[in-house]
Amino acid sequence: MPDLTDLLRNADGPVRLKARWVLPISGPLFEDGEVAFEGGTLTYVGRARPDAGALDMGLAAILPGFVNVHAHIEYTVLRGLLEDMPFFPWIRSLTALKAFLTADDWITSASLGAAEMAAAGVTTIGDACDAGATVSALASSGLRGTVFREVFGIEPSPPVAQTLDILKRQLAQMTSTLVRSGAEGRVQLGISPHAPYTVRAELFEALADFADQSGYLQTIHLAESPAEEALFQIGGGPFKEMFDRRGIPWEIKNISPIAYAKQSGALAASTLAVHCVHATDDDITLLANAGASVAHCPRSNGKLGAGLAPLRALRARGLGIGLGTDSMVSGNSVDFFEEMRAAVYGARAREQDTQALTAKEALFLATLGGARALHREREIGSLERGKRADLCVVRLDGIHHAPTGDDSPEAALVYSARASDVCLTLVDGQAVYDHSRFPTLDVARLRQSVSAARKKVRTEGEKILGEANQQRK
Fold it and tell me: What is the DSSP letter of 49?
């Protein structure tokens, strides 16, 4: 296959790609299909036209780029350091290790994560970031995204007004980066009140008011773990023990974390609720009534022993739902095919029903469902004329697909495909990944920089890693 990057960059007129399968997601698939785009906009999606001129991708599927609604690509450098740990010591160790990284470390780490996203066919990321490095990473990589700036504040001080002032300055800096890089619009901003156990009620309310007035989407980690449930339902567990050690006052709430978020006013703004593993029927009603969407992260939830989210119940209430890989520290990779499989297998295991989630429905969650969860469905998530030319091409000619790729593309994509099958990823009709090449990023340099940062974390965080290792025994 020729290098398509220059061809796409220098195209004078429409670019046409054809393949054995085209999956628009919003409508029926096309066997021997074709897509065409010009100026970053899709102009044709349908059956391959008989005239010459379309580049033939062969036995492959062309589909919308995946929409990863919840990630933390800044944490790529920490992948593999905190394995096989319970949730509470895991998150405590993760927080401690972050202190050893510089702003440059975060940028190179996030950029390497962005490269992995592109290679996996992901074109849009909903990323929650603490250091703000994701903005630079997405701007340089060419990926699309919504970057949520995280906010913490469980302690009584600093005052809410001071926290909001800091947030506004951070968002202004991020906006300036986007303007300088020409990524404004492609990369949007949001805010992330981190979680009910890290954000006090008055701050939750103030952040929701700010998000609503400013037009920002917000994302909140909600109902993720048994430790979180114990804190809110009975006022005990490891989070309460940590609060006691730090002198943080806490009264028993006797309600769920989602009910607490609602009571605190946190759901008054447009909200992407992340995880919702322990959401009850009443919780789901609260989310639905608030117009919230949900980020479903089955691999991360499974690895951390958090549980299986009630996906069927969430879908039944009409909530916008997308898939997320979470961080490299909890999910290890951004292979979206693995994420789809985990979603299918987890839903079926929970419900003991093979119809709890089908392959076609999983593809929807990975694309248009994710676009809706991020409120970006008018521009991405499906292959439709007038939408952005964000797509990926997945080869189905590997032996692990035979003979499924010949006649069952949806089954092949969900049950046997892997990230290494992706051969081309386009954003706005431009290549961000092209047959093992990264046109927008120097991945070799990024790997060296991230390796150096990793060694620093191992050296300076030796005590923390030693304590983490004891948690595994």
Answer: P
Residue reference for tokens 């009975």: 234
Give kind and range of the element (H or E) at residue 36: strand 30-38
Closest CA to 124 of 413, 427, 357: 427
* Structure confidence by residue, pLDDT tens digits, 85-142: 888 888 888 888 888 899 999 999 999 999 999 999 999 999 999 999 999 999 999 9
Contacts of 117 (CB under 8 A, 6+ apart): 68, 71, 73, 125, 141, 143, 334
Give the DSSP H or E segment for 19: strand 15-22
Task: List the one residue out of 343, 335, 372, 370 whose CA is nearest residue 359.
Answer: 343
What is the spatial distance between Cα 27 and Cα 24, in angstroms, rounded to a whole number? 6
Helix axes 133-141, 103-119, angle to 10 degrees: 40
Is the sign of the CA dihedral 337, 363, 184, 422 positive or negative?
Answer: positive
- From the number of C-beta atoms within 10 Å of its C-beta (0-12, 13-18, 19+), residue 243 rates as middle
Q: What is the model's pTM?
A: 0.96
Q: Which residue has the tokens 């995204």?
A: 145
Helix, strand, coil content of the chain in percent (nearest 5): 45, 20, 35
Q: Hey, what amino acid is at 33?
A: G
C-alpha–C-alpha distance, residues 194 and 208, integer Å: 12
Is residue 102 exposed (0-12), middle (13-18) or buried (19+ Cβ within 10 Å)? exposed
Per-residue tokens: 198: 């890290």
Question: Alpha helix (H) ranges present in 248-334?
Answer: 257-263, 281-289, 298-303, 311-316, 328-331
- Residue 393's closest CA among 434, 424, 368? 424
- Report the SS3 class of residue 103: helix
Tell me: the pLDDT tens digits for 37-79? Answer: 999 999 999 999 998 889 999 999 999 999 999 999 999 999 9
Please give the structure tokens belonging to residue 69.
């609604």
Contacts of 181 (CB under 8 A, 6+ apart): 136, 139, 140
